[in-house]
Amino acid sequence: MYRMGQEEINELSKVIMARDLFKINEGLQESCQVENKLKEIFGSQYSIFMTSGHAALTSGLVAMGIGPGDEVIIPAYTYIATAMAVVASGAIPVIAEVDDTLTVSPEDIEKKISKYTKAVIPVHIQGFPCNMGAIMDIANKHNLFVLEDACQADGGSYHGNHLGTIGHAGALSFNYYKIVSCGEGGALLTDKREWFEKAIIYQDSSAVAFFGDQMQGFSTEGFCGNEYRSNELCAAVLNVQLSRLDGIVADLRKNKKYIMENLKNICEFIPSNDIDGDCGTTLAFKFETEEKARRFASQTGINGMLPIDTGKHVYKHWTPIIEKRGAFHPLMDPFKMEANKNIVPNYSEDMCPKTLDKLSKVVYMDVNPDDNKTELDKKIELIKLALK
User: Fold this and answer.
1) pLDDT tens per residue across span 376-385
2) Residue 23, in any domain of the structure
């Protein structure tokens, strides 16, 4: 979260005074406004506002018909929620290496495809765009679904197309740590009517048929799902935040570009699949060794972090996944289901050595969209000193 203030307070106040806090109402209809804004901003036919990015990923997989007997390829570097969404659908996550961009390697995706593979989840980690051109080519070649995890990339793009809209569906996140935030929230985007119907039922099966006309014109019959429905308070905050999105991303990109331009001759940054579409949240310095990376990260004023140290974002720290504990009750655990008996992998902490090597030789520094030229120049000087 970067910018929040009186406008959000004012919108929240309106909702509280109207006393209509439930998503379906005849008043301000903040949740409906959020979904309409998302469709307008991202150009998707359908959007569903819900409680989290994990909820959106899980709902998307269920809507695609992913379940027991299926494999879903995910990157070795992503938050554990990506893997857990696959398990929540009853399917098995297959973990692929990342390449030098720190996003999933198209080459390794193709290596990991089997007759059981049904989908791929490319993750635009840290707002870095995946190689969506290559990924969509592979998906089309092998008849796979693509569910984009754009939870860290609200407002990013790839060759002019919004991240989250290039695949067959996309998930966004609006928790505290994202570019725009309502404390906690997410959204599913898709152009497929059938998937929209299934996802909206799944994410709110206890209420969707009973409040408003949410199922008007549906051909999908109701079924049991979960309750990922959000509320008008979160929606009120997000409505204001979405109006800030373009400005925040533009300033992030501008400041990141300024820093990179002034340092390009004295250091190396990781490559990008589309630097113009990069969200601009993160400077990623590349080093020859982990020792050099850690030395730079520890210098005065750098406040750097190695992605290898980000805990649950690195596959070897996905303890419930690595140890194959997919549910509390064994009969609900995909790793123990009869339908998955032929596809349960032998996970190990060293199964993606290329990913571990790359993550240990990069240092992240945050970009502040509100830094002025003086502050940016000071940061650049500190980086130059640290590089020496």
Assistant:
1) 999 999 999 9
2) yes
| Residue percentage of the chain with pLDDT more than 90 | 97
Average pLDDT value over all residues in the chain: 97
21 vs 28, 31, 121, 233, 254, CA distance in Å?
Answer: 10, 10, 34, 6, 38
Flag whether 145 is in a domain.
Answer: yes
Active site residue 192: no
CB 104 within 8 A of CB 113: no
**Tokens, residue 284:** 């990623």
Q: Tokens for 50, please give them.
A: 């819900």
Does residue 286 sit within a domain? no
Is residue 156 a contact partner of residue 130, using CB atoms and an 8 Å limit? no
d(CA 76, CA 354) in angstroms, rounded, equals 10
**The domain spanning residue 225 has which CATH number?**
3.40.640.10
For every residue of 112-154, DSSP letters joined together read: H--TTEEEE--B-GGGPPP-HHHHHHHHHHHT-EEEEE-TT-T
Q: pTM here?
A: 0.97
Number of domains in the chain: 1
Q: Which domain holds residue 207?
A: 6-242
List pLDDT tens digits, range 54-81: 999 999 999 999 999 999 999 999 999 9
Strand blocks (E) in 230-359: 268-269, 282-286
Q: Are 281 and 297 in contact (CB under 8 A)?
A: no
Q: Which of 37, 112, 118, 178 is catalytic?
A: 178
**pLDDT tens digits, one per residue of 82-115:** 999 999 999 999 999 999 999 999 999 999 999 9
**What tokens were used for 351?**
């199964």
DSSP state of 230: -
Looking at the domain assignment, is residue 88 inside a domain?
Answer: yes
The amino acid that residue 256 corresponds to is K
